[in-house]
Design brief:
α2 crosses α3 and α10 crosses α14. It is built from 26 helices and 31 strands. The strands form nine sheets. Strands 6-5-9-3-2-12-15-14 form an eight-stranded mixed β-sheet, with no helix packed on it. Strands 17-18-19-21-20 form a five-stranded mixed β-sheet, with helices on one face. A four-stranded mixed β-sheet has the order 29-26-25-31, with no helix packed on it. Among the domains are: 164 residues, Immunoglobulin-like, CATH 2.60.40.1730; 134 residues, Neutral Protease, domain 2 (Orthogonal Bundle); 86 residues, Aminopeptidase N, middle-beta domain (Immunoglobulin-like). It is of the alpha+beta class and 867 residues long. Its EC number is 3.4.11.2. Aminopeptidase N is involved in the degradation of intracellular peptides generated by protein breakdown during normal growth as well as in response to nutrient starvation. One of its GO terms (molecular function) is metallopeptidase activity. Its cofactor is Zn(2+). Belongs to the peptidase M1 family.
């Protein structure tokens, strides 16, 4: 595929003001008639070029007359009308085959129902159109379908009518008054039931809300509905944004490439982000639903009312909306724990992406396949970049900036530059240096050192970045004594300062009233105000103090993480060539910090759970630029866990017992924290060779009335191969085998087990009745969990994991290129492997890349990976 470049952006040659669509639905031959008012944009004589893919053209009418074949040119991707008037009406009839649409873009079928996915370029698989986000049109839609098979007919906007169309068919009409880009178009038709509710907006309008699901899932929508109403209220209270249609509909479908889609007034969701009740969904599922429902709802303003000029502006809507949904979740639960989880994710996924072959700026400068740019960089780093603006400006000024942005650009397709301009106007600040965050790939590093002078503490910061232009960022800092007391800065009562870091080398001097013999420990980048790596020579003692005494919970957690890393990396490095003869002693500082934190489980169990979570194997692997020692990472991580469990066994048991949640399941922060700390504690205890702790897990499984507690028991037992684990897995399967969404948890656990048989098991499970290669959730659960969550087996020295994954990706690429491309990012790591593994992984990459039939999606990923 040709490279598309931001620098080549040109305003559209033609604008489309209205489009009336009529769908005559049929699984294999759906007729789509599209009538558009087209108008030339500016003065030129260029042709009208419409996008279209996998369409059968039936007819074209031009101002009411059939257009003869010599008046247009048709290729497999474009329809060109060389000679058109200043403005005119075009009616195009196409035929499409939704049942054959396995790529899940455009109009397709899921569980026999019809649904659409148009972002980013799916609308061109429905009809010929100028399929780019800066074409904003008013849509009206008529859907004609068999009334028994498809009783529910939905589209964007407000409903107008539902009538009989004769011969057992019905016709539904919908009108969306808000001009929108084609990527926000949506249609759903099927046998669905709805959970209905209402919402009264701040100005007193009544909105009808509905969540449509397959009838057997009717009792699993309450949490999503609750999340929707909370989101609607939050956006009014926090950003002053009110909903703008009479109805808001959500539909859950099983076959979906991503999490969900913010189509105007008709959000379509992957069912995993809607369906939940206590016995089928875990706390993590509940949290995911709350945040994705909010995310899609918030797009109604950040994305829909104000949209993107082109796909290079993707982070304008995604980064901003992730920031909004993260702040919403923080307000609904524990702000500190949410921040810890968001940063943990950013470090594990986005930092790795930014350091690998797919690295790109938050605003990419070119792409071949835009689907490959729905990345953690665009979403999560993009959110951090918006958060930094909030931190630099302060909330009130930032809010004035967002008001200006929404007011000024309502109904328009705009750029990241426009957003920054609003922030700049609202604050009077020059943000031109800040723009670098959008333009340059890679995680900046700050090298921090300090010095003491009488009554002074000096902090020096050096930006270690590629290129010579420094970044601008807010950096919150505080100082603590070795006793853990906060130090007042500059003779005031102020304990925390936000530094604006904006030069390559910068230093700050604080006057402090601390005797020279008392050590000062800096707490840097508190709350992770800047998405950077900080290099400061912390030792065990300093980290142990911060992990206990820092007043910023994020930095307490971070100090714990750094403590784990210090010990683990040292052990991994010295154990790279095999385990040492005798076990290394458990470092006193680490053990003490662990024990101290355990004692806090009464106050904030969720925070304790985060603090006692070891860094993942993946994160440990990311610390190595070459020759990643997978075996040593796995072994040393498990050993440290067992050593801690041995020392703190009785305290762990106490924490487990004290955090028994109330008798019935409720999704509320304290109970979630209690279940989470029990999960962690149980997985420490089960590393010990004691039947009593295995029994503890079995009892938890047996007594649980909710999925969180029963699955956590399974998870804890999965650490070691035992008969009892096998028995419980069999019981779980027996109970849930008819519910694929729940079986995903079981598939993932099966794929992640490190008993030496993982690949063989995964191979066999592909034949399980609940598995389907066509369903992205199943593929991520089984194949994705194997490739990303079982580093030991996937990276087996004989390369069996690489060969097998490449074969599956090739197979999947034949029917769902987006899915294949996502899976292929598991190969990004190859240059950091030891030479023997690197050769094997490279061979697998070359094999995928060199197939003539390789999709543009996949070949962009494999091509960049091979570099
Ligand atoms: N804006 C939505 C993106 C999306 C998507 C992109 C590519 C292929 C399929 C997709 N489904 C949804 C999701 C969001 O960020 O809200
Ligand atoms: Zn989004």
């Amino acid at each position: 595929a040709r490279e598309i470049r931001l620098a080549d952006y040109q305003a559209p040659d033609y604008l489309i003001d209205t489009i009336d669509l009529t769908f005559n639905l049929d699984p294999i031959a759906t007729r789509v008639s599209a009538t558009m008012h087209v108008r030339r944009n500016g003065s030129h004589s260029r042709p009208l070029i419409l996008n279209g893919e996998s369409l059968k053209l039936i007819s074209i009418d031009y101002d009411g007359e059939k257009l003869s074949e010599h008046k247009f040119a048709l290729t497999d991707r474009l329809l060109t009308l060389p000679d058109v008037r200043e403005d005119f009406v075009l009616t195009i009839v196409t035929e499409i085959n939704p049942a054959a649409n396995t790529a899940l873009e455009g109009l397709y079928q899921s569980a026999g129902n019809f649904c659409t996915q148009c972002e980013p370029e799916g609308f061109r698989r429905i009809t010929y159109f100028v399929d780019r986000p800066d074409i904003l049109a008013r849509y009206s839609v008529a859907i004609i379908a068999d009334e028994l098979d498809y009783p529910v007919l939905l589209a964007n906007g407000n409903p107008v009518s539902l009538e009989s169309a004769g011969e057992g068919r019905q016709i539904a009409r919908w009108v969306d008054p808000h001009p929108k880009p084609s990527y926000l178009f949506a249609l759903v038709a099927g046998k669905l039931t709805a959970l209905k509710d209402t919402f009264i907006t701040q100005s007193g309008r009544k909105i009808d809300l509905a969540i449509y699901v397959e009838p057997h899932n009717a009792d699993r929508c309450a949490h999503a509905m609750d999340s929707l109403k909370k989101s609607m209220r939050w956006d009014e209270e926090t950003y002053g944004r009110e909903y703008d249609l009479d109805v808001f509909n959500i539909v859950a479908v099983d076959d979906f490439n991503m999490g969900a889609m913010e189509n105007k007034g008709l959000n379509i969701f992957n069912s995993r982000y809607i369906l939940a009740k206590p016995d089928t969904a875990t706390d993590a599922d509940y949290a995911g639903i709350e945040s994705v429902v909010a995310h899609e709802y918030f797009h109604n303003w950040s994305g829909n009312r104000v949209t993107c000029r082109d796909w290079f502006q993707l982070s304008l809507k995604e980064g901003f909306t992730v920031f909004r949904d993260q702040e919403f979740s923080a307000d609904m639960g524990s702000r500190a724990v949410n921040r810890i989880q968001d940063v943990n994710m950013l470090r594990q996924i986005q930092f790795a992406e930014d350091a690998g072959p797919q690295a790109h700026p938050v605003q990419p400068k070119s792409y071949r396949e835009i689907n490959n740019f729905y990345t953690s960089t665009v979403y999560n780093k993009g959110a951090e970049v918006v958060r930094m603006q909030r931190n630099l400006l302060g909330w009130e000024t930032f809010r004035r900036g967002t008001d200006l942005y929404f007011d000024r650009f309502d109904g328009q397709a705009v750029t990241i530059e426009d957003f920054l301009q609003c922030m700049s106007e609202a604050s009077g600040k020059d943000l031109s240096q800040f723009r670098r965050w959008y333009d340059v790939a890679g995680t900046p590093k700050l090298r921090v050192s300090d010095a003491r002078l009488p009554g002074q503490y000096i902090l020096k910061i050096q930006q270690e970045i590629s290129g010579s232009e420094p970044y601008m960022m807010p950096l919150d800092v505080a100082l603590f004594t070795a006793e853990g007391d906060p130090i007042a800065l500059d003779g005031t009562g102020v304990l925390v300062q936000t530094l604006t870091v904006c030069e390559m080398h910068q230093s700050w001097s604080f006057s402090v009233d601390v005797p020279p013999n008392i050590r000062i420990i800096p707490s840097l980048n508190r709350g992770f105000t800047a998405p950077v790596e900080i290099h400061y020579p912390y030792d065990q003692e300093a980290l142990a103090i911060l992990s206990h005494a820092d007043s910023d919970p994020f930095n307490r957690w971070d100090a714990m993480q750094k403590l784990w890393l210090l010990t683990l990396l040292e052990r991994i490095k010295s154990g790279q060539n095999g385990p040492s003869e005798s076990e290394p002693p458990l470092p006193e500082g680490l053990s003490h910090a662990f024990g101290q934190i355990l004692l806090e489980s009464d106050q904030d169990p969720m925070f304790v759970a985060e603090c006692i979570s070891l860094p993942s194997e993946k994160y440990l692997a990311d610390q190595f630029d070459e020759n990643i020692p997978f075996e040593a990472i796995h072994r040393e991580r498990n050993l440290l866990r067992r050593q801690l469990a041995e020392v703190w066994e009785s305290t762990l048991l106490l924490v487990y017992e004290k955090n028994q949640p109330a008798d019935h399941y409720r999704y509320e922060p304290r109970a979630v924290g209690q279940r989470q700390v029990r999960r962690l504690v149980l997985s420490y205890l089960t590393t010990l060779d004691r039947p009593a702790w295995l029994q503890l897990a079995v009892t938890q499984f047996d007594r649980a009335d909710n999925m969180t507690e029963s699955f956590n028991a399974l998870f804890a037992l999965s650490v070691r191969p035992t008969d009892v684990f096998e028995r419980l897995m069999a019981r779980f399967e027996e109970r849930w085998r008819h519910d694929p969404l729940i079986m995903d948890k079981w598939f993932a656990l099966q794929a992640q087990r490190t008993d030496g048989d993982a690949l063989e098991r995964v191979r066999q499970l592909m034949g399980h009745p609940a598995f389907s290669l066509k369903n992205p959730n199943r593929v991520h659960a089984l194949i994705g969990s194997y490739a990303r969550g079982n580093l030991m087996d996937f990276h087996a020295p004989d390369g069996h994991g690489y060969q097998w994954l490449a074969d599956r990706i090739i197979e999947i690429d034949g029917f769902n290129p987006q899915l294949a491309a996502r899976l292929a990012t598991a190969f990004n790591i190859w240059k950091r492997l030891d030479p023997a593994r690197a050769i094997l992984m490279k061979e697998a990459l070359v094999r995928m890349n060199e197939r003539p039939a390789c999709s543009p999606d996949l070949s962009e990923i494999t091509g960049k990976s091979l570099g």
